[in-house]
Each structure stands twice: as C-alpha cells, then as structure tokens.
TrEMBL record:
Key words of the record: ATP-binding, Folate biosynthesis, Ligase, Magnesium, Metal-binding, Nucleotide-binding
UniProt cross-references to InterPro entries, sorted A to Z: Folylpolyglutamate_synth, Folylpolyglutamate_synth_CS, Mur-like_cat_sf, Mur_ligase_C, Mur_ligase_C_dom_sf, Mur_ligase_cen
Any one GO MF annotation of this record: tetrahydrofolylpolyglutamate synthase activity
Known role: Functions in two distinct reactions of the de novo folate biosynthetic pathway. Catalyzes the addition of a glutamate residue to dihydropteroate (7,8-dihydropteroate or H2Pte) to form dihydrofolate (7,8-dihydrofolate monoglutamate or H2Pte-Glu). Also catalyzes successive additions of L-glutamate to tetrahydrofolate or 10-formyltetrahydrofolate or 5,10-methylenetetrahydrofolate, leading to folylpolyglutamate derivatives.
The EC number(s) this enzyme carries: 6.3.2.12, 6.3.2.17
Pathway: Cofactor biosynthesis; tetrahydrofolate biosynthesis; 7,8-dihydrofolate from 2-amino-4-hydroxy-6-hydroxymethyl-7,8-dihydropteridine diphosphate and 4-aminobenzoate: step 2/2; Cofactor biosynthesis; tetrahydrofolylpolyglutamate biosynthesis
Protein name: Dihydrofolate synthase/folylpolyglutamate synthase
Catalytic activity: 7,8-dihydropteroate + L-glutamate + ATP = 7,8-dihydrofolate + ADP + phosphate + H(+); (6R)-5,10-methylenetetrahydrofolyl-(gamma-L-Glu)(n) + L-glutamate + ATP = (6R)-5,10-methylenetetrahydrofolyl-(gamma-L-Glu)(n+1) + ADP + phosphate + H(+); 10-formyltetrahydrofolyl-(gamma-L-Glu)(n) + L-glutamate + ATP = 10-formyltetrahydrofolyl-(gamma-L-Glu)(n+1) + ADP + phosphate + H(+); (6S)-5,6,7,8-tetrahydrofolyl-(gamma-L-Glu)(n) + L-glutamate + ATP = (6S)-5,6,7,8-tetrahydrofolyl-(gamma-L-Glu)(n+1) + ADP + phosphate + H(+)
Record bears the keyword Glycosyltransferase: no
GO BP annotations listed: folic acid biosynthetic process; tetrahydrofolate biosynthetic process
Single GO cellular component term: cytoplasm
Gene: folC
Keyword Ribosomal protein: no
Family in the record: Belongs to the folylpolyglutamate synthase family.
Length: 421
C-alpha cells in the first residue's frame, strides 16, 4: 500500500543524520541514476540565489514568463502551509500523487546513499519538472549556492539578488566568501544578473573568472526609477538589450528584484511587452511577504537586511500604534532585526517557537528591554500570541515577522478565520 505524502515527508526527515549537509557528491550520484544530468529538464532554466529577495524574484519571473505565454515550473523553499507550495506548474501547486510517485522513483534507485530532506525534495521536483518539460524552470537556491542541491542543474542564466550575513553556522561570517559561494550558481558562457547595488566584490570576480557571457549589474547595466501615480520604469540601456519600458504597475514587491527579473528574461531572448507586463505585475501575490490580512501584516523577514526593507515599507503606512509579534530562531541576528524594525514598532509581543533551534521569547524580551523598549507580553508560540492580541490589543496594527515558522503558524490561524481579518 502506497504511503501518503505526510508519511513520505516524515520518512524523509529520518534518511540523513543531519538536516543540512552541504555538498553535491551524494545527490549527484542519485541524480545520475535518475537520468537528470543527461538531458534538459526544461527548455530554459533560471537559478536564483541570494540572501534576500529570492522568493520575490522567482514570483515575478514566473508571472512575467506566464504572461508572455510560456509554461513554467517554480521550485522554492521553504513552504508556509503545504509542502506542495514548493513546486508550482503554471502557478498551480503540484499534486500529492506526483510527489509520491517521484519519491518512490528516487527511493528505488537511491540504494544506501543518504540524502537530506531538502535533497530528496529537490530531486523529486527535478524529476517532475523533467517529466513535464516546461518552457521555463525557475529554481530557488535553498542555502548558499555552489553546494546547494539545486546547483546540480546547469542554469541558462543565474541571478544573485543580494549578499548579507545569514545562516552563519553553515556559510560563516566572511561576506566575501559568502558571495563567492552564492556566485557558484553561475556558469561559464552564460549570462549573469547581479541584482544589488551593493554587491560584494567576490560575486563579480567569480563571474569574470568563469567567464560568464555577460554580467549585468543593477545600477550599472540596468536600473529602475519611480514615475508618477505609483508607476515605475525599467531600463537596460547598455549592450545588445538596450530596452526601456515605462509606466509599469507596482508589483508590491522590491523593484530591485522586479528589474532583475525583467533583465534576466530579456537576456534569455524573451521580448517583453508592456501590455503583458501590466497583466503580470498587477496580479502578483506572494504569501508571507508584506502580506496584509486585515490588521495583520505578515513578512518572513529574519535578518537585518530584510527587516530594514519591511521597516521602510511600513514607514510609508503610518498608523496610530503598531505592535510586532516577533518569533525567531536562535541562529539569527535578533539584535539586528530588532534594531531595523525599531523605528516603526511601538510595542512588542515576543513568542517562543517550537524546536531545538528556537530562541526563547524571554531572550528576545531581554534584547528589547535593554534598548529601552516595551514588551507587552510573552507567549508560548505564535498562535498563543494571536490569542493574546485578540483579547488585549484589538485595535492595533500588527506586524508578524522573524521567521518562516512564525508567519506560517499565524497565517494558518488567520486563514481559518481565527483572528481579526
């Protein structure tokens, strides 16, 4: 009798002694047995790496490609509510049956090769993508770049969105080394998009050493500008592209990432049309990224760079009083996140996440109080935090952030209609 998807996911968690084990040797062995390295998985492949902005870049790549008539597959991680969110075909979640079939096929050839949860999931996604052969496959790097499981596939174009400190236990604290690791998704003879105005030097150096066919850098080779009535323009004035599009609708996501997505698609030879971009950018909704549900704003920001973007966005939406429901993992820069959010938060409600990696709520409270802030309550988990807010803080604007786990629990609660929505 076949296992359910829930049973399979529980099984995957037990296959390898550690949750994260960077390296491509093990996954490459199994990928070769599956025939994934001997042919194309899609007509074009885009791989997206970076500390922040990967998810929004992937979402905009997909939306614009689909608006221009291309079939798409998107592989992202982690998920918020359902594992199936990780793999989308033309915007629709993959079915349980397709995932189960892929896991069974991998297990049949894996032998004694140990694979992590993420590696098994990545192989399953690649198998399903290969079987369906879409026009474009968009792969989001899980962690780092060069040693990430997604990097067994040679991308037709690589995008590095940003480089900042995060996942220090695995990537270290040397920002140039982190940049070189993320640049490992780039391929010789193929284009590279660097989507940050403050990109560390090692990324461009790696691109030049390969060398890539051409390297397009935000603020140098392409850019965007605000226009009137909430519109913006994208321009790539140099080289063979030499394109400008004006009066584009604001997608509600970082325009650095929007401009990077457009530049990548143009570099892949996809002629961009204003009418189709209107359709694409007007319909993008990305769960957990400045997602508004009633008085709640949910964002998965868990490092200072991402929290700074959230603060900038919230500063443009003044409210009488804003509370932050904050839950974080222990290996994240809580001090930096709190400092970034400080200007737009009036009071704090701190929560303790479940699991060994969680940072206790009282540790977050200590950081806030040391800065002179007010902690209105501590709760044993995000759901308990929502309970407290609904009883004691019914009229405040609420920012929910600090971790995918924090946002996921609150999102599930709000989608069930439990809370002010």
């Amino acid at each position: 009798m076949s296992c359910t998807l829930t049973q399979w996911l529980a099984h995957l968690e037990k296959l390898h002694p550690v949750a994260i084990d960077l390296g491509l040797d093990r996954i490459r062995v199994v990928a070769e047995r599956l025939g994934l390295l001997s042919g194309l998985i899609a007509r074009q492949v885009v791989t997206v790496a970076g500390t922040n902005g990967k998810g929004s870049t992937v979402a905009m790549l997909e939306a614009v490609a689909r608006a221009h008539g291309l079939s798409t597959a998107c592989y992202t991680s982690p998920h918020l509510l359902r594992y199936n969110e990780r793999l989308l075909f033309d915007g629709d979640e993959v079915s349980d049956d397709a995932l189960i079939d892929a896991f069974e096929r991998i297990e049949a050839v894996r032998g004694d090769t140990g694979l992590t949860y993420f590696e098994m999931g990545t192989l399953a996604a690649l198998v399903i993508i290969r079987d369906r052969a879409p026009d474009m496959a968009i792969l989001e790097v899980g962690l780092g770049g060069q040693l990430d499981a997604t990097n067994i596939i040679d991308a037709d174009i690589g995008i590095v969105t940003s480089v900042a400190l995060d996942h220090a236990d695995f990537l270290g604290t040397d920002i140039e080394k982190i940049g070189a690791e993320k640049a490992g998704i780039l391929r010789a003879g193929r284009p590279a998009i660097l989507g940050s105005r403050h990109m560390v030097k090692s990324v461009a150096a790696h691109a030049a050493a390969l060398p890539v066919s051409h390297c397009l850098v935000l603020g140098q080779d392409f850019d965007w500008q605000r226009e009137e009535r909430g519109r913006w323009l994208w321009q790539c004035p140099t080289g063979a592209l030499a394109s400008t599009l004006t009066a584009l609708p604001d997608p509600g996501l970082p325009l650095d990432n929007a401009a990077s997505a457009l530049t990548a698609l143009e570099a892949l030879g996809i002629p961009l049309e204003a009418e189709r971009l209107e359709q694409a950018f007007s319909g993008i909704r990305l769960a957990g990224r400045m997602q508004r549900i009633g008085r709640y704003c949910l964002d998965v920001a868990h490092n200072p760079h991402a929290a700074g973007y959230v603060a900038d966005q919230l500063a443009q939406r003044p409210v009488t009083r804003r509370v932050a429901l904050l839950g974080m993992l222990g290996d994240k820069d809580a001090e930096g996140v709190i400092d970034a959010l400080w200007p737009v938060v009036d009071d704090w409600l701190v929560v303790t996440l479940s699991g060994a990696r969680a940072r206790p709520g009282d540790a977050l409270a200590e950081i806030i109080r040391a800065r002179g802030g007010q902690v209105m309550a501590m709760a044993d988990g995000p759901a308990a935090g929502i309970d407290w807010l609904e009883q004691h803080s019914q009229h405040d604007d609420v920012l929910v952030c600090g971790s995918f786990f924090t946002v996921a629990e609150v999102l599930a609660r709000l989608e069930r209609g439990e809370g002010t929505a």
